Predict the structure.
Amino acid sequence: MANDFEVGPGGMRIRRNTRIFSDLKNQVMSKIPRNIGANELNVSLGCGSQVLAAAGPFSLSVTAPRDLILRDLVVSAGSVDGTITTIIVQGDAVHQGSAAPLALYSAGNQDRPDFSLPVMGGTTVQVSGTLAAAGTVSAGFAID
């Protein structure tokens, strides 16, 4: 038998119970999509970073490499305070009103806005704002 093995020379034959492992493998494999492509593996869209030598404005932009859905935006500037003044997607402002504090879009804020905005490949996405002191600012979106 293919699933039997012998313990010691001339010893007792033992049958492995592979049905349990086969069933477990089938259950796990049934949950994994068969055709995972690069689009399913991409989960974030980086907007880049900018180093400011002094307080002042910043502008980060990226071109969407494929059709996607922009989810939440995370902006980081370390311990430097600042504001987001505009978020523009394909020429349309998705941030309305006056400037919002960077803390609204920080990784630590669990109540970050969720845009859930469909975007076609080739679309330019721009995040602009100001920093209150010298520092490095970077941004990125979660995407689907």
Q: What stands out?
A: The radius of gyration is 25 Å.
